[in-house]
Each structure stands twice: as structure tokens, then as C-alpha cells.
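Hey,
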Amino acid sequence: MTLKKWHKITIISLVIITTIGLIYYFNLSNRYKAIVKTRALHFFKIIDSEWSKSLTDNYIKFQSPSLLIDGIYKSMEGPNALQNFYLNQSKQDLLWMTGFKIEAVDSKTNDNRSNDFVCHTNIDYIEQEHHGRWNMLDRINKQYPRVISLSHGVESVKFPEGYGFPFFSDEQFFIITQALNHNINDSIFQIKHDISIAYSKKRDIKPLLPRTIFMMLPFDINDPFNSEGKMMENSCIPIETKNHTYFDKNGQALSGHWKIFEGEQTFSYNATEQLAIKDTMRLHQVTPHLHPFAKQFILKDLTSGEVIYNCDVINHKNKIGLTKTPEFSSKEGVLMYPNHEYELTLVTDNTTNEVQDMMASMFLFFYDKEMDLKINTYYDAQ
């Protein structure tokens, strides 16, 4: 075969591969287009792909790679970036995470941009490493290993004074941050996320145990997207079935990411099993994660009738977005009991004439008595 024929075959092959690739790309959902696009832009260094990290005596600070905003990205759809990190691999000091903050900035000027471009930032630990260091292996695979999630409407968190999440300076964590854009569709620009983690070296801090609960609503697994009068009471139409789909002990399909329709809707979910409270625990912090058009989010003790946390959500008035999702924070704490039942209630108010999406989670932080005993033994041995 001649060199000319080889060139011809090569060109035809490249055209076919490119065509197939473009067809595949343009058939993806907005979320997966953002993933593919962002990875390509970072891989080929078309936009800044590097994380930066700086360290002071009180803060670990990160700046994310550039994230391209080139259209509307609803919650969970935008470009994102992932990074693993240590505070200091050369030491093994016991430290405490005490606060978190995220801000959107311009990629070129570093000037502040609206936090409407912040979808969420998650900080996760490796549970085999974290629990293994304390010989608490029975905790593995019991809860998702997330320290916290900052999200639109709650861009900073500070634990009650005297409380924190314990970690070692050479312990590995993962951070993922995602961009959001509900309102601007007539310009293209790049942003970054500035993320800071406050930490302390003090010894007189009490450990917090993170635990996540979230609303899951039933749907018809055989016909998940049909909303023509087939919705059960307190059920949902999922956004998709590949992600955030779960099954209860009876095999009923549940979704944690669903559609909300025009006007007010109320949803409820019994979170007792998710909480998995084995002994009386004291709750000190609740940080919510919600999407725009959430109106009220409640954690209630069904047994006593007590409302533990009532989040009255403030939405933007003239555009889509969350102005504030107030937290619960208490140094004294609130007792929660193993023989009580607990319920999440969410009220939404979709003020548009379009279907919107919703998620509703609470990141709860309890005083960790078992960890406290371990830490006291650790300090005594120093």
C-alpha cells in the first residue's frame, strides 16, 4: 500500500472518529457535556488546570482550576474540579477543622464574583484511613465519608466554639468544587473558587461526628419519567435514574434528585433509619444543602413533636438563586434519641413556569463521645 493511500485512510479514519465523538458529545446531558468539556480544556491546558494551595497557622487555602461558564448550568450540572490534599505529609500532628468558606473569583483578575457561581464544594475523608487510625473499623461503610458540603446559599460554616472535626496533618482528603450559573446566558467567562479550611492546634476541642441525611422520594422504576397522573402521594419524577437512585428494604425505588413543578409542593421523608442513632446523641450543628425554590426545610422529632431545626429559606427576588439557607449551630446542643423517630419535611415554591430540580440534605454534627475517649488516651500517651 502506498504512502498516499495510508494518508487517505488515516484522514478518513480521523473524520469518522471525530464525527462519532461529536455525535456522542451532543447527545449527552448538560451535566455530562460539562464533565467532558472541562476535562478536555484542562487536559490540553486551554484554560488553567492547576490547583494552588497555601498554608498558614490557622487556614488551609485552595484555589481551584479555571471553570468555564458558557451557558446555563443548573444545580449539579456545572463544570467541576477534584483534588486530593494533605495538610502536611511530613508530620503527624492531631488537628481540628473548625470552619469552612468558599468564594467565586474571576480567573484572570482574582476579583470577587457572585457566589451565584458556587454550586457546591465537598470535603471528603477516606474512611479506611480516618477510622483505621483510631481502630474504629466498625464505622466503615456506615456513613458516606463526607466532612461537609458548602453550597449555594451557605458558602461559609463555623462550628460552635470548642468543637471541631479531628484529623491528622498527614491524613488524606478529597475536595471537589462545582460551578453554577442559573441566570447568565449571553456571555462566556471563566471563574475559580477560593476555598479555605480553618483549623486549630488546641487540645481542649471536642470532636464532632458528621452524619448526612437526605430526602429520598419513591418513583415508578418501570416508568420513571411519566408524570401523566401516575405520581403516588409524596412521590417524585427523578431527574435521571443513573445517579441518586436508591432502593429501600422492600425494593421500592427512591430518588434523591427530583423534579418540582410550578407552585408549592410539600414532601416528607422518615429519616430515622438514615440517622441510625444507637445511643442518645447531642446535636450541635446542622448545615443544609438545598436547590433554588426550596422554601422551608424541617427536621422534626416525630415522637416528641419537637421541631429540632427549621430552615426558612431566602430565595433571590429578581433572579434564580438562594440568598440564604440558615444553619443550626449550638454549643449546648440538642439531644436525639435511639427510640425516637425523625422526619424531614421540605416545602418548595417553584415560581417559574418551567420544571426545576431539587435536592434536600442536612449535614449533621454530633458530639462524638467515643472519639473523645480515644483522643484523651492519645494525648495522655504523648
